[in-house]
Amino acid sequence: MLDIGWTEMLVIGIVALIVVGPKDLPVLFRKLGQAVGKAKGMAREFSRAMNDAADETGMKDVAKGLKTATNPINSAMDGVKSAAADLGKFDPDSETGKLAAQRAEDTKKIQAATARAAADRKMKEAQEAQARAAELEAARDAEPPAKSDT
Length: 150
Prior knowledge:
Blueprint: H1 6-20, H2 25-57, H3 59-70, H4 72-87, H5 95-142
Helix pairs in contact: 3-4
């Protein structure tokens, strides 16, 4: 604001202590604080009035258009951020919430059916493999032993 460092504030405090005196210094600082508070309040009110006037005249739309034109990537990211913030604000009792719950339930049913079908397929493949192994073992046992040439 005024860009005053700690050393400058210390010098001002020491001078104020010497000029005003230790008894009246707290009263002076209280009045100074009240004046600064009033000035900040007036500045805040002025800023709010200017923002309201800009809203009424459509300056925010113009400023947003200029921002989009000068930096389209950041403005796109702002749109993504606002959309992401809006995602968390849905009512579970609304139609959208009911549809989301129904979709989640349907998804679980589909996943369960898919897992069941995969397990059945694996079991069928295992049974077929056991039957094939039994056939090969039976064929091996039915074959006469090979003669050796000795």
